Amino acid sequence: MTHCEYTLSVCLTRDGQVIGRREVSAGAAIEDAVFRALLAGRVSNGGDAPEVRVEPEWSTTGLARVSALRVFVADDERRYGAAMFREQAGAIARELSAAGKLGREESARWSLRAERRERRGLRRATVRRAPLPLVARSLPAVEPGEMDVAIAESVLAELRAHMETRPGEEVAGLLTGRLVHDRERGAACLEVSGYHPLRAGAGGTSRLHFALDSGFWRLLQDEA
């Protein structure tokens, strides 16, 4: 169960006036905090979701601006800076530019803001999470409480070859592997062992669209 009494939004301002706004979610920070609590053995892998509380850390500039989010899970507190929303701010700027509302030479500032939600009589709900497919193994090279990513040389070679077949074009693929967990040390390692190119279609910001169709998933299941 997640408790957050605020609505978060990314705002773009020019000369002190808001010219663009988009509501955003603290979901990425929450998932990271819960995952790290799982690695440390503070929450169970699957079952009822743990209690999570999200609080804004107010900026000294005021105006409901937020410098960071503080996420509390199982008596553990983690801080996530507002910079995690920089990509959303960039997307707003690109949309304004495409609509002719923000010139290339014009500068705009962005900030994360929080507004307290109106309290309503919502019913309490229990959320259940599917367990992560963790593989138990010792990871002496990974720092306690941290997660490393190990990509096989063969995967890098396949990815490089895929890019070379489409010089100057956008390509995409799905990485597969396993998530190894050292429970005693609270460490993890994502081992990437497979790369599967995706077919490109029309659409999207870059005029390309990559879709995961049912046939592609069946192929992956057969290989697994």
Q: What is the structure about, briefly put?
A:
The protein is an alpha+beta fold and 224 residues long. It contains 4 helices and 15 strands.
Q: What's the N-to-C terminus distance?
A: 33 Å
Helix content: 10-25%
- Mean pLDDT equals 86
Number of helices: 4
Description of the molecule:
The structure is a single chain. The model has no long low-confidence stretch (mean pLDDT 86). The protein is an alpha+beta fold and 224 residues long. Helix content is 22%, strand content 39%. A hairpin with a 6-residue loop joins β5 and β6 (65-73). It is globular. The protein folds into 2 domains: 2-128, no CATH class; 133-223, no CATH class. The strands form 4 sheets. Strands 1, 2, 3, 5, 6, 7 and 8 form a 7-stranded mixed β-sheet that branches.
Salient structural properties:
22% helix; 224 residues; globular
Could you outline the blueprint of secondary structure elements for this entry?
Blueprint: E1 2-3, E2 6-14, E3 17-24, H1 27-39, E4 47-48, E5 52-58, E6 65-73, E7 76-81, H2 86-98, E8 109-116, E9 128-129, E10 134-136, E11 147-151, H3 153-165, E12 173-182, E13 187-197, E14 200-202, E15 208-210, H4 214-223
Parallel strand pairs: 1-5, 10-12, 11-13
Antiparallel strand pairs: 2-3, 2-8, 4-9, 5-6, 6-7, 6-8, 12-13, 14-15
